[in-house]
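Troubleshooting: if your tokenizer reports a length mismatch, compare your output against this known-good record of 273 residues.
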Amino acid sequence: MERRLVPGTQIETVRDRPLGAFGHAIFDFDGTISLLREGWQGIMAPVMVDMICGDTEPTQAIRDEVAAFIDETTGVQTILQMARLVEMVQRHGRVAPGEILDAQGYKALYNERLMAPVRERLAKLDQGELPPAEALVPGALEFLRELRARGLDLYLVSGTDHADVVHEAEKLGAAQFFNGGIMGAEPVYRGSNKEQIIRTVIDEHGLHGAEVLVCGDGPVEMRHAREHECVALGVASNEQEGAGWDWRKRERLITAGAEILIPAFEPVDALLA
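Known-good structure output:
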């Protein structure tokens, strides 16, 4: 399929329909706005492989299965990924039943490894060693600021634990823009918080789907946007480089239902137009 770019930009359109009637916008956080957790996939994958294999030697087939699973579930709450990990450990049968942890136990192990680099980046932010711009998807704050200036209500919804999302959004200067609230994962899973917010926003305000913009870098929020006929803006950001396209992410977002794709929010004026 030939790529359709807005002339003079890196904004790619997949589906044509009237735009501009937005009153509400729902954002994912990690990889969409924040780069503080860049590399989480590279931490989760070895954790999952280690838990599946126990004391046995990992196979390439298991590594591939884990990688595909992480790609598919980017954007869901971590506890759901860990619940699936329990199933994978049981199915492969390499670990004695008495040694298999529950989803909370695996989540604790993963978070312990993940939070080491995140805390280091937060400390560097506090000490002025890491400029905030380097911990953000380019143009993200300006885009949020401009949407609020135009009267949109903004919501931040993440699969990361609630307290962590709030803390990190405040550190990056993004929290101030989400007048609709910040919703992270709670200790007990009660359904997809992203789908719940989309449905609540539509129902409470009597909206049509096209009046709601859903912005994220994971297939989960793109699928929910498509199911509710919202406009799906996919952020295929290259988190490792801090700029440019992540082509694998782009393909996943298109498959999931993204209809506008960007590698970053810059230039903001062109994106707003």
